[in-house]
Design a protein that fits this description.
The protein has 288 residues and is α/β, with parallel strands linked by helices. The chain has twelve helices and eight strands. Helix content is 42%, strand content 17%.
Length: 288
């Protein structure tokens, strides 16, 4: 079921399934939307675990409104705060993919009395020390996206993220209807500005400073937070590799690691939809 709620003078859309006193909030990243979580919501609807599942479209993305914003990380965090408050959620489990990971961990740090558990997959846990942290292809791509004029042409005019990157980053092929669901909310250049902004806010070498600071603080809190944590991953992985998994096992207390099989690329809920859905629903059902 799809709904909307007023948030900070604008509106955010969301899908939901299930009922219960605890709510799992599913946070997508760039350039996706709540559509990313459709298989998880379908599984949650089929299994009565006494849990409500809510998947918002981040502000400016999917069916949510696109107000006149700078589309900073702080803008997204503020709208997420307001979204949770507008729905009256005070017992929350957060699940993040891509930028949804950074938003989830930042929210956990700032609302420790609200968040009961976190799950994350294929997202950066910390700022990138420098451009050497990218592989050759990723380094060239993100440097182009951050080049004035070039990034605008690629994302705003050519719709690079949705017409090129999304299909290329998947192991399985999306159907025409699935691709259309992702592309429809971005019919013109103006509607794609949030997608370009996300690419330019990946913190590299300490810049943008606000995002780097927020991510460092969130990770430091995650290392000591007592909340249950689960990391979903698949081979070969893109942002979460075997090395990342090993670091998380060593440094994050209370962590479960779930291998959802493979092969899979960056968009784990698309490449391994039912495995991700089953892993999340089963994990949430076992939370105290």
């Amino acid at each position: 079921m799809s709904s909307t709620v007023e948030v900070l003078g604008s509106s955010m859309a969301y899908r939901e399934a299930g009922r219960g006193p605890r709510t799992v909030v599913l946070l997508h990243g760039n350039p996706t939307s709540s559509w990313l979580w459709r298989h998880v919501l379908a599984r949650a609807a089929a299994v009565d675990t006494g849990t409500r599942w809510v998947a918002p479209d981040l502000i400016g993305m999917g069916a949510s409104a696109k107000p006149d914003l700078a589309w900073t990380f702080e803008d997204h965090a503020a709208h997420l705060d307001a979204f949770v408050e507008a729905l009256g959620l005070d017992d929350v489990v957060l699940v993040g993919h891509d930028w949804g990971v950074a938003l989830a961990l930042d929210h956990l740090r700032r609302h420790r009395d609200r968040v009961r558990a976190v799950a994350f997959m294929e997202g950066h846990l910390r700022p990138l020390a420098g451009w050497e942290d990218f592989d050759d292809g990723g380094r060239d791509l993100f440097q182009q996206l951050r080049t004035p004029g070039v990034g605008e042409r690629m994302v705003l005019e050519e719709d690079f993220f949705l017409r090129t990157l999304l299909p290329a980053a998947l192991v399985r092929s999306l159907t025409d209807d699935e691709l259309a669901a992702y592309r429809t909310p971005y019919p013109d250049a103006a509607s794609r500005r949030p997608l370009l902004a996300w690419a330019r806010h990946v913190p590299v070498g300490g810049e943008p400073a606000a995002v780097a600071t927020a991510m460092r603080a969130a990770l430091e809190h995650l290392r000591t937070s007592p909340v249950p944590k689960v990391l979903l991953h698949a081979a070969p992985g893109v942002l979460v590799t075997d090395r990342t998994v090993a670091w998380c096992r060593e440094h994050l207390s209370g962590l479960d690691v779930v291998d959802v099989g493979g092969p899979a690329g960056h968009f784990l809920p698309e490449d391994r939809p039912w495995q991700v859905a089953e892993a999340l629903v089963s994990w949430a059902a076992q939370l105290p």
